[in-house]
Fold these 4 entries.
Entry 1:
Amino acid sequence: MNTPVKPTILPDNPHFSSGPCAKRPGWSLAALEDALVGRSHRATEPLARIREVLSRSKDVLGLPDDYRIAIVPASDTGAMEMAMWSLLGARGVDFLTWENFGEQWVIDGETQLRPLDHRIIRAPYGELPDLSQTDPERDSVFVWNGTTSGVRLPNGDWISDQRAGLTICDATSGVLAHDMPWRKLDVVTYSWQKAMGGEAGFGMIVLSPRAVERLESHTPPWPIPKLFRLAKKQKLIEGIFRGETINTVSMLAIEDVLDALRWVESIGGGPGMIARAEANFAVVDAWVARTSWVEFLARDPATRSRSSLCLSITEDWFAALEESARWDIVGAFTKMLATEGAAFDIATHRAASPGLRIWGGGTVEQSDLEKLLPWLDWAWAEICTEHAV
């Protein structure tokens, strides 16, 4: 193989991790100077900023007017657990799973939420399950974008407008990178640390009127921990959706996400973020098409994520190795890039097969991806030379 010359130009921001993700372009600690630290989150001024997060979030997402949104503890994980523990049990539920995070929600359905009439509709990494198997009479739980597989739902056409069940969607790497068919989705969860590059530890939950109706008409058969409670005596706890958070929220994190939201608004809101993710994907897509040693893990082009870009290494010699040896090579490859300051944290998730995962969401600059790709070619050539390939 022709050995690429070592690049001389580094990305301005080498942070391509899929979570926590890159801060918005130009971010610095100065963005937090006005944070109301040392103040009660219940006081008038801090509460106003929390409510500002809710209103700006609703605007940039393009939520319907009658949908509610709230800040909840424990990132997207907490938001999803809250949704499942509070809402499931009234009907049977279909768990759709094709990567690690979908499998986490299956664990709750199989071992924690009992009794629960549940089915599992599963596909291997790189594929989507057969969506036609879902039953509109049943609830459904699914991710929008498989963060660890790079496989996304291309649309919501498979979701019936006449469904009786609720759709509960983990969209933490889906929102602000993909078009979301909100009227098809009854519960949506995500975290600040993904699409907006916000701080970790806080989740967002979005409820449709149908989800609120379920909360007020159904009491689950299992105990619900305080952190998961959205209703009291079969009435929605409205304060949660007015900024009265379930537990103490960090005013530093609030200030940071407000900064991110204002930046999102400055580039055209949700559509602007989606456009940036699409442009970033196009850069990587063109590189994959001309590169012999990688391919997208997502087999169908229509299902390829616009945020978590997961790549398989296709070299025969690499595939012939034991999995532990392949992980060693991926580790050496990514360490080489980190040492050079070209990219940090781009190995695939440990639940996936050894490969690469590059975040391409809207906070990543297209120019940084363009600067990264020659470094990938150079580093792989170095790995091949080391292994005498």
Entry 2:
Amino acid sequence: MKTNLFIFGFTSLLLASCSNNDSETANPDSALNKEILTNTSVNVITATYSELYNNSVALTTACQNLSIGDEAELTAVKNAWVATRAPWEKSEGFLYGPVDTEGIDPAIDSWPVDVNAINNILNSSQAITSTLLENDDARGFHTIEYFIWGLSGNKTASELTTRELEYLVAAAQNLQSKTQQLYYGWLQSQGNFANNFVNAGQSGSIYTSQKDALLELVEGIIIISDEVATGKIETPLNGNNGAASPQDEESRFSNNSKLDFANNIRSIQNIYLGDFASIEGKGLTDLVASKNATTDANIKAKITEAISAIEAIPGTFTDAIFNHRSAVQNAQQKVAELKVVLESQLQPLISNL
């Protein structure tokens, strides 16, 4: 294609490309920006999706090993679900790329559970397979959660039916296929969406500059901070005309909501710091600290305060929205404060680079 450009004389395109590359090279922060974008996309985002996929494989295996009446095996499935849920919630600070463009988010995390759709499948004569669930909303994390905990959260292994086990395995396999699709979408040897960040401002990237790519990172963490404060916490807390609305609480069957919310904020933390698991790399913090150490310290403090306030909510979130509302409101406020700092301090700083 480049040869054709020369042949047909589209020199303006080439000049624009060269000008853009020269601009990035001349930027004194260019090398640091590249480190941040490379580390974040490869060692944080792709690594998170790798853990998600690997854990989903273990969840599928646990579901395949589950038999009616075996409480130990049901506990193993529950533990595998929680382990798979964690990296997914830690990924919600970067819901761009394949998770969005390939429709993976709604395929694995639709809420609320469509019990009628589930029952229609259970009551049909069709074999329940991953393929059958491919075009149905009755799949993903919360469908699996519904089967292993039940609506009241205390389902026993003896209450499972053969048909439910068939559905559970299919749902786990479908989840595994979606998490593999997501991981491979970013993996450098596969779809390599990470390349858009690594080579931001260069030919082949959807980001025309490093600043645009950095702003994508910032926008992602602002969105999840807003969702946690104004959606995930607010709706079950006040969704019933200012009173508690427990049916709107996500992950309520498993009582995993508080961990979900804390992990959502950890997704912000991981992106900001550039850290994940044992990796401690360059993150937005390194750029911000070089420009305004006070802003950097403030953002870090607000992240820590938000996580701590969520974890300080007593008991289950279902109980807390009735009996510990002040603690829930405090957590909501801390998350809202984090959002304000990200919007009012971090986003303008990056925008003005």
Entry 3:
Amino acid sequence: MGRILFFVLLALAIYIAWRYLRMQRRSDGADPRDRPRPNDASAPEAIVRCDSCGLNLPQSEALPAPGAEPRRWYCCEEHRRQGTAR
């Protein structure tokens, strides 16, 4: 009877130690499953159309027409010159 009680207590101690270590790893961020994932869904960027050739490109890469209302966008400097010459 004493041996059975010894092994039950030993198994219980191992289980408690395993749970404790697992909780410590989670709080330290060592568990790769608990790390925050990078934000893959960044804010969408507006897409504009070149007024000369019709190419669609991100607004940050487009060249605006100087002083045009409503705003017109161009894909390159040559198209911007052609558009402002009209």
Entry 4:
Amino acid sequence: MTQGKPAWIRSVYRPQAAAEVRALMARQSLHTVCDEANCPNLGACYGRQTATFMILGNLCTRDCRFCNVAHGAPAPPDPEEPRRLAETARTLRLRHVVVTSVTRDDLADGGASQFAATVCALRAADPDMTVELLVPDFGGRTRDLDIVLAAQPDVLNHNLETVRDMYAAVRPGADYARSLALLAHAKRRRPGVRTKSGLMVGLGETERQMAGAMDDLRAVGCDILTVGQYLRPSDRHLAVRTYVSPAQFERYRLMAEGKGFGHVVSGPLVRSSYRAEEALRGWEASP
């Protein structure tokens, strides 16, 4: 049974800064996962003049039971989107840019070429930017992932999201082994890329199951791990089974570090792209 939100689930909101970033995105006809996924960190990120860009529209061809992004039939890719995104990143003076997308099972390459074009546009706008891509699973097609990897992102992120035993209930359109295979292929194809993944907690998973997911991620060479609390976006989404305590998040951090992850961020409001630059720098500073 779900209890009320505990005191440690708090987020910061700066209305003026949020309005400024929203206005900029609207002028450039861009989407952010911050808004579309109703992220609890939106106010904090927009307040620091940063955001996670979401390419390929705001309608997803999948309908995961935890995600607030709208499901529907998306429009064709916009060839000018990468240029506008790069201009916006430069306007915001971002040093580290995180780009994700809706899942586009309707496209022959799953949107891989749009990811690659976006990386190229960002490199042209500022060669010193680091670029992190949070990609879908491309239906398991390694040829599509290779298109993304050829653009040479600094970080290749793909979220496992939940433990193996809960995949059918939480991610009915995805596959646990397929997600692990994507991360494994990324390391084989481009050993120098930093790989990253995220896990949600609070859906009824056990600590033993979480340890198993961490082991599976380390087995495919995953470098960076984030662990955060699942928060229910609406009544039609999966219910929160429990609010995990800060002490348990610290336990998960120590557990993951003990398994060999180069950098771990674990906490109630942690999300895969939240403070992503700090996670990358933390990994670079690790022994």
